[in-house]
Amino acid sequence: MTSPKADPFESLVSLLRRMPKAELHMHIEGSLEPELIFALAQRNGVALPYAGVEQLRSAYAFTNLQSFLDIYYAGASVLLKEQDFYDMAWAYLLRAQADNVLHTEMFFDPQTHTARGVGMDVVINGLHRACVDAQTQLGINASLILCFLRHLSEQEAFETLEQALPYRDKFIGVGLDSSEVGHPPEKFAKVFARCRELGFHLVAHAGEEGPPAYVWTALDVLKVQRIDHGVQSTKDALLMQRLAQDRIALTVCPLSNLKLCVFPRLADHNLGALLDAGLVATVNSDDPAYFGGYINENFTQTFAATGLTAQHAYQLACNSFEASFADASAKRAYRDRVDAAFAF
Ligand code: ADE
Ligand code: ZN
């Protein structure tokens, strides 16, 4: 009797799921599932303008970045206490473990919370405690990157930095997120220069909806080490050369790009083109509770739609650790684990 032939795509899916990976672009507030939003609303006595989980989920039909951000900031309004921030981060970290994420650098948006009167200590201590527990209980190396909201002023970013500095040992870097078009990176030149002096890692969202010019100024004015999204870079050949030459990583989020209509279909996504041009592209989930999937879902749906191969999977796993802010010896150990997963 002959054994049934293994389906090659099923083997690729299994490889994508089990391969060790780092996640470098995940907004922790974007991991708040509707069930947790409602549970926290009840716990904290917060009224929501939705009848229930299903009605909230059915509102997740976005036409662009801003249509998503409006609902994302509303969802975050249920977070009031340190334990809420811990519970949110822990729920994500359990999902990350199930997806074989060994290392995650999570974004958080403190201004969304401090504007509602929640203390910076409440936000950072809750998230950081989950990071500590992730290491000891899940074997995941988890750290935090504080994002400034670019629709607010640079002065407000400076005030946020000032409030966060007493907790500087609890986050490793700063980033820039929220509404991109009309808020170019150079608006935050001074605060990023200060964060650089302070020794923080620097990243910024650029080229998600905004033009390649924003990627250039994120690199040349803000001096960031990675670009979040950056998918508009393929429109500028010189920029593509620069990103490849300097090995500047792009933290790409395919399901986010699909849900926010950056690409009409996943089959049109340029992840393959970025990899084939020699860029250090990575796959990430951005706001998984809103965009239909965590990191492994991003991998499997994108590979199914675009025809990427096991060679691409290996490259993406290696890229994720290379682009991380882990130290050199941790990167070598991660790389050995990737090689072991692909040794067959
Ligand atoms: N905040 C959360 N998700 C974001 C995204 N995709 N772009 C900009 N800001 C965000
Ligand atoms: Zn993002």
The CATH class label is Alpha Beta
What is the residue-averaged pLDDT? 97
In CATH, the architecture is: Alpha-Beta Barrel
- What gyration radius follows from the Cα positions, in whole Å? 19 Å
Bound molecules: adenine, zinc ion
Overall body shape: globular
Strand proportion: 5-15%
In which range does the helix fraction lie?
Answer: 40-55%
Cα end-to-end separation: 25 Å
How are the SSEs placed, and which strands pair?
Blueprint: H1 8-18, E1 21-23, H2 34-44, H3 53-58, H4 65-75, H5 82-98, E2 101-108, H6 110-114, H7 120-138, E3 141-149, H8 154-164, E4 173-177, H9 189-197, E5 201-206, H10 212-220, E6 226-229, H11 237-245, E7 249-252, H12 254-259, H13 271-276, E8 281-283, H14 288-291, H15 295-306, H16 310-322, H17 328-342
Parallel strand pairs: 1-2, 2-3, 3-4, 4-5, 5-6, 6-7, 7-8
Bound molecules: adenine (ADE) and zinc ion.
Zinc ion binds at residues 25, 27, 177, 205, 228, 286.
Structural write-up:
The chain has 344 residues and is of the alpha/beta class. The protein has one domain (19-341): TIM Barrel (Alpha-Beta Barrel), CATH 3.20.20.140. Helices cover 51% and strands 12% of the residues. It contains 17 helices and eight strands. An eight-stranded parallel beta sheet has the order 1-2-3-4-5-6-7-8, sandwiched between helices. Helix 8 (154-164) runs parallel beside helix 9. The protein is globular and about 55 Å long. The two termini are 25 Å apart. The model has no long low-confidence stretch (mean pLDDT 97). The structure holds adenine and zinc ion. Residues 27, 30, 65, 72, 177-178, 205, 208, 256, 286-287 line the site of adenine (ADE).
